[in-house]
Every structure is written in structure tokens, then in C-alpha cells.
Amino acid sequence: MRKVKSFLPVLMMFSFCYAPLAALDVIPAREQISESRPRVLLSAASAPLAVSLQQLRSAEDDEYEAMLAKISGIKNAACQAMVWQLTGDSVAADTAVEMLSRYRYDTGKNYDTFDVYFDLLEYALAYDWMHTYEGFSKLDRGMARYQLGRLAREQGMKWQNDHIFHNYVWMTAAGTMLWALATAGEDSTSDALYDDIRTRMNSAMYPGMQYLDGLPTESYGYWSQYDFTGAVWPVIAAQSASGQDIVGRIEAEQGDWLRRHFLNEIHNVYPDMRFAPWGDVISGPNGSVTHEMAGVLDAATWALKSPQGAYFSQWLAGKRGTGRFYGITGVFYMIYTRMIDTPAEEPALSFLAGGGSQGGHLSARSSWDADATIVSFGVKDHYGDHNHYDQGQFTIYRNGLLATDPLVYQQVRGPQQPADVHSTLVIGGNEQQERRGQNKSTLEQFLANLDKGDFLDTGDFLFYEEGDGYTAAAGQYAQAYAPGVVESCVRQLLYIRPGTVVVMDWLKAPEGGSLGTVDWLLQLADEPKISPYMAWASNDSSFISCTSFQPDPTVSVQKTAVDAWRVKFSYSYEADNTLTLVHMLTVGEGAVPSPFFQETQMALVENGYDLVLGDWTYRFTDSGDYAVTARRNITGDANADGKRDIFDLLALLKVIGKSNYYPTRLDPNDVNQDGKVNIFDLLELLLLLKA
Q1: Of 266, 344, 335, 333, nearest in space to 305 by CA
Q2: Torsion sign over Cα 310, 312, 317, 318
Q3: Where do runs of H (alpha helix) occur along 360-488?
Q4: Distance (Å) of CA 572 to CA 519, 577, 578
């Protein structure tokens, strides 16, 4: 069981010092870069921290031949350089050299980050891998360094004073760092570039990754393809180029942030190979692992020696075969996919990325099978303009999305961004407040704007636990609303496998105020039907139903501008300054049964609510970390400690001796379940203990 740890020491560390304390030792000093070639991702000699040329040229099979034919046909300098390294084909070598030599930096072109990243990725690998080829002359190398060096310095470095959590910045940083690793030691201009981009990545970019602790700061299509990828390649390339165990240092000294981000990648992929939306669903290759992602994920699996990564690699290979490699990513199959020898291990059923004051994203599933139910829940701070006003949101997947985030993406700050298209709350007519903060070039600047300035603090993750057959979590996101709307807004989510989700909301108005009408929003991928207390829908393969536990809700349905159906459960208790809402969602196979009810008992207890489902009682606590705990229902377990013993007799005697005692339907002291607690319960317990 993993409970959320405190992040106060981390916050204090970054608050009091900037560069000296915040910098991470990730990219090594230039003097530690090897002079031997190749050195970027490959090694001429056998080495434990890089794939050697001897390894690269071994283990041929049918899939290898198919991938070799694939990259041979791609007019890409890195692909042709890889063909030469594998086969010694001089035609491929001359092609790679010719592409390197003819590259020209265009001073009149309006370069974008994709030009920077993909060009520098391609040519950095090609430059390093072709370095020892006799046809790649000193003059050719000098021309390539001059032309591509201008791209790195004048474009790649230009973006580096921008937002540390943004995909464009990570893309350009990664491309620039790879080019610097390929050319360091060649001339003074290349050395200066290396020193500059190393400083930027160590002092600003990687501290941001460590702080996030696996939490993505953008919708997953963007994050996975560019931020995560942009963080991984410089680490693995710097490790091979220096011979230092950078991955091991990150694990031992930096909270293992690389593995945390990698595991979150795996846990946020659906059985249909698409990413969990976390804000919006992006179509095409940016919305899935079907293009471009297999290479970097296999590289990370190899570097981390990850059993979960090996499992995922095999799973994706079974889905897509060699089609999972696109363009230049085929070279990573040759280097890493064939070298994975870590035994595969099925990942855990849940994973929390982040967790604490920076927020968290939870993913929990019933299994790793194709028909799994997958529940996602997020409460976090505002990291940039790709983020939405969606704190407290949840999504549910089974054979396709059921409870969904927006199903379209139009543009940054588009109709997919406001709170009313996410499964969250509108309080007294107030949606979550609009934030803008995509201009923080250091973690120090970001942290300084959490509770002042841009007010980027929009949520704290309070609690997470993986229990016996369930996953539970809680988050506070009152700060996502404008001041004066709500003093406390805590959402607890309990996922009971395989298909039950309970959402408990605890709301408190500011002193002297009221909450007004509260709208509890559920976004569905398919058109629902509704009744006075329920809504239900089906995607033809699976169903979802939602039941309100509150009296007299107003239930309505509206088609949204983002191709989803908004179900609104409205509660108008105008004078109330506190409100507790309980909703149960049930997911199953096929069409929703009609009528559909799940037998449930719920009772108010001293520090929250107890909810009985089947053989278990779940307690939703109403303060502190808002923990959700579970205990198996054992007849006669009067003190609710999970056992039946002599101490239950003592607990029962204390209750029977109370005047004015009146049991609830869930009272564990009512041993014989007759709605009373008296001497007959004591006799029943004695018989049970004697048996």
C-alpha cells in the first residue's frame, strides 16, 4: 500500500534557493564525454551502459530483416547511418554523409519546434554514427557542425527561456542536447553550446521533472510524445556518451523520477492503444502509442531494466508488430528492442503519478486484459495552457470510453478547456477559475506563483491507497475556484473492482456564506437515458450507470460542443453551508439492465460515512487526509478491527450499557441483525466465539 507522502521538504528546498540547490546532476560535464565513436546511444566497445556495436550486429531473425528493410527505404540520415553500422553498406553510408553535408540553415525560414527537434535528432545520431566513416571527411564534419550548429544555437537555444513544463521547450531542449552530445569536443563553438544547454537542462528542466514525480503537465498525447520523450533521450544519450550510470544516479539520488514518469506512461494506455485523455482526446498519432512511441518506451525499458516495460513492449508488439515503429524510430528497434532481456512482469493494478501539493493523477484498472475497466482521477496544479479547468475530474473506460473527457481538440484554450465539459463540480453557478501561467522558465518561478501572482495552485492530492480489491484516493481543489466560492471542496473516489466507482464530495462554504445550487457533472461518451435519480448509457459493448444518493436531485442532459453528453445532477440547498454528495457509478458488460439497482447500505458515523457493499464496509472519513478505508464484514466483530475475539465482547458490553443508544442498520454491534442492540446480541456473540 502506498500512501501519499509529504512534499513540504521539496517545496521548502525550492523556495529558499535557486540554481545551486535546485540544479540536478543529470547531464555530465563536457570533460566527461568520451572521445571514442560512436558514443550517442551506441558504444564501440562492450560497456554495461550502452549497446555495443558487437551487440548491435548480432541476433538476426525474420523481424530483424523486416525492420532492416524498413529503415533501408527511409531517406533519413540516421536511418541510413544505422544501415551502414549494421551491414557496412557503403551506399547507405554515402547517402547519410550526403544528407549531412547538404544541410543548410535558412536564415529566412520561420523555424518551429518540430523543425528543431526532428532535424537535430536525425542529424545528431547520423553525425555520431558516421564519424568514423572514411567518406565523412573533416571538411564535411565541419560544414555539418556549422550549419546544424546554427539551428541548435539560434533556434534550439532561443526557446530555452520559456516554460519548463511545455512540450515545445522539451522538444527543442532534447534536440539541442543530442546535437551537443554528438559534437562536443570538436570545436569551441560546439563546446560552448554543450555547456549552455547542459546548464539549462540541469538547472531548470530536470528539476521540473523531479518535482512532478511522474505527473504529466499536459494532455497525454502531447506529454508522451514530446515532454517525456524529450526528457528520456538526453539521459540515455548522455549515459552512453560519458559511461556514467546516470539512470542509477536518478534512482538513488533523485527520487527515481525517470522510472515514475515511465510507469505512468504504461498505466495511461488503454487496451485500444490510445492514451487516457487527461483533458482531451487527441486524434491521430498524438493520441496513441501506435506511432513513434515504441522506440523511446523500449529504450527506457532497457535502461531501467523494467519488468513492467518488458511486459508493455511485448503487449504492444503483439498488437502492432513492426508497424509500431514509424520513420526514424525504427533505429531504436535495432538498438534497444532486440536487447531487452529483463523478464516481463504484469504492472500493478493502480499507479499514482505525483501525489501531494503538486497534485496527482491516479489510474486504476480491474486487470490488464482487453475488457478491463479503467478508472482515472486527477487533482493537480495548473502547469500550462494545455491544462484544463478540470480538477476533480474522472474518466471510466471499458471497451471504449464511457465517462469521458472532451472527445475533440480544436486549439489551445478551445471549447475542451472549461470545467463544464469535465466530470467535476459547478458551485453556485461558478465554474473553476480561468488560469494562465505558461511562462515560467524555472521551477522557482513556478513555485513563487502558486498562491500569489498567477495563483497556479489549483489542487492538492490528499490520499491514495491500493487495498484488497479496491483503490481509493482523495483530493482537495477548493483553490481551483475563485476566492469566496467555496472554502473546502474535497472529492473522494473509491474504485471497487471490477466495476463499481463511488464518488463522495465534501463541500463547505466560506464563513457566513452558502453553497447555492451545486451541479455534479458527468460527461458521457454516448447519449444517456435518465430517471429521477439515475443516468445510464452504453457503448454497445459495455454500460455505465450513475445513481445519486441525495434526495430530490434535478437530472438533465445536454449535448456539448466537444461531442460528449453532459449529465447534470443539480442540488439546490440554498441555505446550506455544508453539503455531502454521494454518487455511485456501475460499469458492466453489454447493455445496462433495466431497472438497475445495486444493493447498498450507508450510514453516518462519528467521523464520516460507512458504506456497505457485499462483504465489505468502506469508511469515508470527513477530515484530515480524507482517507477511505475498508474492512471485511465479520459477524460479531463489534469493535470493527477485522477479527472476532474477546475484545468484541468488551466493546458490546460498553454499548449495551449506554442509555439513549440507537443502532443503525450498519451497526456491527447488532450481531443478530434484528435492528436492536441488547442482551440477545451478547448471547449470539458468545455462541459465535464458542463455535
Answers
A1: 344
A2: positive
A3: 443-448
A4: 9, 12, 12
